[in-house]
Amino acid sequence: MDSHAHFTVKTYSWIFAWLLLLLGITVLIAHYDFGRLNVFAAMAIATVKACLVVLYFMQVKRSIKMVQIYAGAAVVWLAFGVILTFADYLTRHPLQ
Amino acid sequence: MSSSTTPTAGEVIQHGRDTSIFGMWVFLVTEAMFFGGILGAFFIYFYLHANAFEEASRHMDIVMGGVNTLVLLGSSFLVALGVHAAESNQGKKTAVYFWIAVLCAFAFLGIKSVEYADHIHHGYWPGQAWSYAGVDAPQIRLFYILYFVLTGLHGLHVIIGAVLLGWVALKAPKGVYNDGKYAWVENAGLYWHFVDIVWIFLYPLLYLIGAH
Q1: Between residues 13 and 32 of chain B, which touch chain A (CB distance below 8 Å)?
Q2: Which of A69, A55, A52 is nearest to A16 (CA)?
Q3: What's the rounded Cα separation, in Å, for the pair B84 and A45?
């Protein structure tokens, strides 16, 4: 089963290098003023970094299907929580 | 998979490992919900009081936070290598990688303590001694409450993670995780990677939102 083959030290080293590069980009972008886009960019990069850690360091890419589905479902569930809460706050106005 | 109906010893061990790791994932997802709730609160208050949160964030030491991010990313890399070593029965190598990761945990906590001492010295502890002058003081205090709750809970997880890694590192050289029985090496590693992921989100949110 190819998908269950172990990752190599080379793969882990590349992922680590990518994580360092993305950290550098995060710090660099933060020093420029893109208005509200700053926080979105920072969170987008953080999400990419988290995905690299989950897929490779935590080995979800080569895990059993049940772990993959469960980890994916967690992201969806967390997104529901944050998006629905925000849907309330973004549309809430003081009563006239 | 073997075509025989009786599983081989190797398949039994792998099944046990898969089950154990799935259990760890169930736990980690509850942890993600827990941190996600507090991060959600942070997002909402940041949306409501963006300027105050940016001002508060400017009091953070970007370099110290950045070094701590490097320390955690590096330790995660070491833990991945430690698990990799356990997969090929190299328990002593696993122990070395995990012990260095434990040192990284101490370094992280040391740097965080210096930062905490600095915040408290400047009167940013949002308790009785809170002494911030400015129009946005209540909103900035809210930032500090969320900051101490998030980093405090994260720090607690760093301590628990270091204990787990140390425990595995103590047993690994004896060969107890050899022959595919490395579920606990991987589970301790998974916990540590989770601690790293939480920090990956905390660093830009707490330290960098006011940098521009």
Answers
A1: 18, 21-22, 25-26, 29, 32
A2: A52
A3: 26
Q: What percent of chain B lies above the pLDDT cut of 90?
A: 92
Residue among B18, B32, B212 whose CB faces A32 most closely: B212
Residues whose CB falls within 8 Å of the CB of residue B195, separated by 6 or more in sequence, listed in order:
B72, B154, B157, B158, B161
Looking at beta carbons, which residues of chain B come within 8 Å of A27? Answer: 62, 66, 208, 211
Asked if B62 and B207 touch (Cβ cutoff 8 Å), the reply is: yes
Amino acid at A16: F
pTM of the shown model: 0.94
Q: Do A16 and B196 touch (CB under 8 A)?
A: no
Pick the CATH number of B10-208 from 3.50.30.30, 1.10.300.10, 1.20.120.80, 2.40.40.10: 1.20.120.80
B46 at the A interface (CB within 8 A)?
yes
Distance from the Cα of B73 to chain A's closest Cα (Å) equals 7
ipTM metric: 0.93
